[in-house]
Amino acid sequence: MVSERTGAEVLVASNRGPVSYTLAETGPPGQAGRGAAPALTAKRGGGGLVSGLSAIGPDTDAVWVCAALGDGDREAVRRAAHGAPAGGGPAAGELDTADTGGRRVRMLDIPADIHAAAYNGIANSVLWFVHHMLYQTPLEPVFDTEFRAQWASYETYNAAFADALADGAAPGAAVLVQDYHLALVPGMLRERRPDLRIAHFSHTPWAPAEYFAMLPDDIQRQLALGILGADRANFLTRRWAANFMACAATALGADCAPVPPETAAADAPALVSHPAGRPAHTTRIGVHGLGADAGFLRERAHRPDVDERLAALRAQIGGPDRRTIVRVDRTELSKNIVRGLLAYRRLLTDRPEWRERVVHVAFAYPSRQDLAVYRDYTAEVERVAGAINAEFGTPGWQPVVLHVKDDFARSLAAYRLADVALVNPIRDGMNLVAKEIPVVSDGGCALVLSREAGAHEELGADALTVNPYDVTGTARALHEALTMPHGERAARTERLAAAATALPPDRWFLDQLRELTG
């Protein structure tokens, strides 16, 4: 089903787009909500995809396809469809480029109940938990009729993206599909538009085969075939790529086979999938370890608002000679914030000489608060931090400085003053914080890093490696980091920063595009 109009040459698909809208009622004073036209405010996002898409240049015909995530987004889509002031982009249904930084963005108004079931019910409550190995298996998961209804919504959600991409792509266009929310899209799109060149990128870990196998057999098969509809399946590390290949082989059996090394391309291993009723298709497996944007971070970290927050943090920490252990995370279950706090408490218990000499600056920004398990986890982070302060605090020393309100400038200020960076996820696709802190740190920092972070593949040689479950071992690593000689810390920081910025977002994106179209 090739579009009758000229389509885009490059398309990016992701659940969240580069812009979001908030909705407010306007009108004469006291008249809000009485027929007044709702005002829309656009807020642009950042990150690797935004930087990458910008890198391909304004002359490239590129479109970003994403989902409407709230009432403001849905109103913007409706206006775009009708050519109202907040819409009227380069093509019907595209957002106003004044809101998107000049990018062509098509936002899909998928029914809210379908999106909620696909996003919260499947993507965040099943696929995220599987790939991060977070289930408490004596009690969960339970794949029952409710799960099947949610899975049907996930299929519908993915089909909506596949339809939009098929409709909006020029013949032979390149389509880069992002993440676990859209795992079925490559296979669906392949059926609709076999002429397209399709890539899928997994920003999360990929579960080992024995853990992935807890999913129902038909769901395993759908997910494997969905990814294998792509010409290239890309991952953040070699470990996650190898896990995917093992899962595909287990789920598909005789319907999937590796391409012999002597006939595969030199740059990547490959799998051939050939289920009954579908032509055989070869998918090459790639690894692209997203790095930090050094230029942006260093410039942004020295703006006046960051300097102001840095001064405020120093005042809150107290004492010019106090050392700092810094962590910056969302209160995502996989980030392991509670065990990090427990390790800090163990440090203060076992090494009393650090009392009143070190402060743990912990930024734990609430995540996915529409899910009860995340609300409970955020509350537990606050409880444990409060307990440490109650147990060890003195009139002149607050052991844990905890902030739970998202503030990027304050995060950069914390990066700058970090003596030690604590990054101890249970499991993480990459973890950019581990890469960003060494780039921004004013005096150099020692990195305490979980072996289960994807970033460990690149940074492990110069980090202090920890088992994320071992609180005592993490406490020992914190002590080692705090006592590391300045010269060694500076040398390690320099090497960490070089490794962290080896594949900045623009090159990360362009490398994938070149491999897909080359």
From TrEMBL:
Q: This chain belongs to which protein, by name?
A: Trehalose-6-phosphate synthase
PANTHER family xref list: BCDNA.GH08860, TREHALOSE-6-PHOSPHATE SYNTHASE
In terms of InterPro entries, this protein maps to:
Glyco_trans_20
Into which family does the record put it? Belongs to the glycosyltransferase 20 family.
State the SUPFAM superfamilies in the record.
UDP-Glycosyltransferase/glycogen phosphorylase
Species name for this entry?
Streptomyces kasugaensis
What the entry lists under Pfam families is as follows: Glyco_transf_20
Q: Name one GO biological process term.
A: trehalose biosynthetic process
Q: Where are the transmembrane segments?
A: none
